[in-house]
Amino acid sequence: MQREMTGAEMVLQALKDNGVEHVFGYPGGAVLPIYDELIQQDTIQHILVRHEQGAGHAAEGYARSTGKAGVALVTSGPGATNMVTALTDAMLDSIPMVCITGQVPTNLVGSDAFQECDTVGITRPCTKHNWLVKDVNDLPRILHEAFYVAQSGRPGPVVVDIPKDVQFATGTYEIAQANPSNHKSYRPQLKGDMTAIRAAVELMSKAKRPVFYTGGGVVNSGPAASQLLRELIDLTGFPITSTLMGLGAYPASGDQWLGMLGMHGTYEANMAMHDCDLMICIGARFDDRITGRLDAFSPHSTKIHVDIDPSSINKIVHVDLPIVGDVAHVLEDMVRIWRASSFRARPELKEWQGQISQWRSRNCLSYRQSDDVIMPQYALQRLNEAIKGRKDVYISTEVGQHQMWAAQYLGFESPNHWLTSGGFGTMGYGLPAAIGAQVAHPGALCINVAGDASILMNIQEMSTAVQHGLAPKTFILNNSYMGMVRQWQQLLHGNRLSHSYTDSLPDFVKLAEAYGGKGIRVTKPGELDDAIQEMIDSPEPVLFDCRVAQLANCFPMIPSGKAHNEMLLPDEATDEAVANAIDTAGKSLV
Amino acid sequence: MNAHKSDALSAYFLAETSDVLETHTLSAIVDNEPGVLARVIGLFSGRGYNIDSLSVSETEHEKHVSRITIVTTGTPQIIEQIRHQLDRLVPVHIVRDLTVAAKASNQEKPLERELALIKVRGEGNKRLEALRLSEAFKATVIDATIDHFVFEITGRTNKIDQFIEILKPLGLVEVSRTGVAALARGELGLKDVHDEI
Does A586 contact B92 at a Cβ distance shorter than 8 Å? Predict the structure, then answer.
């Protein structure tokens, strides 16, 4: 296909040619030509957000819940800079996203023109790649390349910055010229080295205390990867834990599931990591929230690391057997080799499983129940009961205690149903992400588990939800505190709660109503079930103001500077234990 | 099998390491497009890597590719990170660690040369001494008046350092250096050089 068209038309054509159905955006001077094309077609639906950051997180939620790239469209200057947080968020969590930004006309670039900023300069470190398009004839190639780069290899966000004159200019659109799979310099390695994979399977067949440590890479690799992972777990009978980003790849109801690991992971997961003799890390990156104290991190294990990004290997922790490749490709080979070699799990595995059951019986997620006040954990357990068994539930979160509790108490059965800001920890992520997921899955139940502080960071997107007939439900665990900040102040700063209490919170019920949504408030544990059902049944977006125990803290916890086997468990976390949990060296850590 | 950095309490202390620092020369072939150098330099500053020397120029005009040569100092693990991080940049075609490649084939170092222009001002004996030294160092005079010389010198970095050091008391005015250009010894091109040990 070869046709003459304007740059703005090319944008729309390239979006269509890449299968895009939804764009999240906000208009402005430098993208008016593209918006003029948008209104004259109906293949692509535009979702008008209330703040560009919201467009970015919505695109992320869309991407995470579909596996396709999310698309955002914003104007130059502040439009672009408002995207920076969302781009960085997508970068750290490897979320495919194509962001198109308007730019001042080419002849004004560099003149400090109105709403001008150096978008490619500002977004260079927070994108996988970015482009400033100076010639309309380069635009089709760049747009197709942008989708390819965002979605292939280790996915990530890309920015295409298009000056206004390029949007008006006429050039030749050619789809044939864009064949990115033979890109001249960017060719991600999908297939793992067979010798290394064979060696890995060999190690697995000899392991006495093995554990799978999986991450967001499994989800990013597509549904087949999760399927193969489940198959491999069934074949080997090895226990499995996952990072925050990887939840759902293996079902929480699965026999071998240990729960999440890391700073707020379960006792059994962290102890298994510490005591294992073989760690099989798949699509995870030894983040500091995972490893805890590095010199005491899993001291006796041989480590296998499967990752599509060679720079993830040996970055933090030295591994014995690296395998560079796409998770699904490598898992497929592992499963095949394991089957062909008719390996059986070793009898010693029974002992290991016995040990794990013992750790499990420590019941590390227990908490003291109350009849008068709602414990935040209890609220989430009731929510979990209400959504159990439903396949069309997408959970997003903001960032803080509620996020960790959601990861601990909600069971995720399948990949792409859990949308959370893991690497970057962006408060304000959850509501727009839930909107993005709702756009992709109109009939589904999209719930944003939020805190009272986080939700206010992008609350304006309630208006977006109402305008577009979307009904995400925001489940606010309202304790009037920035709970995680307060928890750290208790741990590190002598319980001096510096500015972590919010004195003048809005009335969330009235706020929901002001936006045209529905507000629900619950203060007693006994009212929870009915209110949750009312929330689920509501055809409108909901702000659910769940008043929870104000001073509850999130446990288990590996205090900074401590090892996996030095967790602070809820029943041991007295005020004194909390105040002394972190030593001087640990205090400087984040 | 243990965590790599034995004295690290957490990832935040990775920089405090007992591993010895090494200086390596890396070569990268990149698309000659706007911003590519900013990507490379931004990677180094953003991740806290060192740049001892960096030189870049288009090497194949028809293919629009440039060659970047970077001399950097870090622990072996950091240098391996640098190589992979560079390779992750979309316009980067190939990255090779020439120092590792040299060691892998039992050579001390890759071929490394630098060019410097050095201006010296002086009279009488100092002037004569400068000229005499330039001959010893095989530098050439490319500009002169009765008050000054500009020398051009090519060689390994330490040879140029030495020449500049010697010229300091003889009226050194200023120096312009290109940074290191490097190739692997032997018949193999960058693509075929092995830099994994």
Answer: no
* Residue of A124, A294, A305, A590 to mutate, testing the B interface (most B Cβ within 10 Å of its Cβ): A294
The model's confidence at residue A580, banded by pLDDT at 50, 70 and 90, is confident
What is the least distance, in Å, from the CA of A546 to any CA of chain B? 36
pLDDT tens by residue, A289-334? 999 999 999 999 999 999 999 999 999 999 999 999 999 999 999 9
Closest CA of chain B from A149, distance in Å: 8
Nearest CA in chain B to A583: B9
Q: From A184, which residue of chain B is nearest by alpha-carbon distance?
A: B93
Residues A288 and A389 in one domain: no
Non-local CB neighbours of A546 within 8 Å, separated by 6+ positions: A374, A376, A379, A475, A476, A477, A478, A522, A528
Same domain, A14 and A137: yes
Final residue belonging to a domain, choices A294, A327, A360? A360
Are both A176 and A200 inside the same structural domain?
A: no
**Per-residue pLDDT tens over the stretch A59-109:** 999 999 999 999 999 999 999 999 999 999 999 999 999 999 999 999 999
Active site (annotated) includes residue A115: yes
B189 min Cα distance to partner chain A (Å):
17
Domain, as residue range, for A445: 376-547
3-state secondary structure of A141: helix
Q: State how far the Cα of A323 lies from the Cα of A309, in Å rounded to an integer.
A: 10
DSSP string, A154-203: S--EEEEEEEHHHHHSEEEEESTT--GGG-SS-----SPPHHHHHHHHHH
Question: Which pairing describes strands B111-121 and B148-155: parallel, antiparallel, or unpaired?
Answer: antiparallel
Contact A132 B77 (CB under 8 A): no
For chain B, give percent helix, strand, coil, nearest 5: 30, 35, 35
Question: Is the interface score ipTM higher than 0.95?
Answer: no
| A355 shares a domain with A286 | yes
Would the pLDDT of A463 be above 80? yes
3-class state of residue A297 by DSSP: coil
Please tell me the total count of domains within chain A: 3
Preferred mutation among B4, B10, B49 to probe A, highest tally of A CBs within 10 A: B10
Domain that holds residue B69: 11-108
Contact A311 B81 (CB under 8 A): yes
Total domains present in chain B:
2
Query: What are the tens digits of pLDDT across the range A14-56?
Result: 999 999 999 999 999 999 999 999 999 999 999 999 999 999 9
Answer yes or no: are the C-beta atoms of A204 and A32 closer than 8 Å: no
Nearest CA in chain A to B15: A316
pLDDT digits (tens, 9 = 90+) for A201-232: 999 999 999 999 999 999 999 999 999 999 99
Same domain, A76 and A168: yes
Secondary structure class of A447 (helix, strand, coil):
strand
Q: Please give the average pLDDT of every successive group of 10 residues along chain B, which has 197 residues.
A: 41 56 96 95 96 95 96 95 96 96 93 98 94 97 96 97 97 97 95 80
Chain A, chain B: beta-carbon pairs less than 8 Å apart: 99
CB nearest A316 (choices: B11, B38, B88): B11
**Both A249 and A173 in a single domain?**
no
Mean pLDDT of chain A: 95
Measure A559 CA to nearest chain B CA, in Å. Answer: 11
A484 given a catalytic annotation? yes
B81 lies in a domain? yes
Is residue A559 situated within a structural domain?
Answer: no
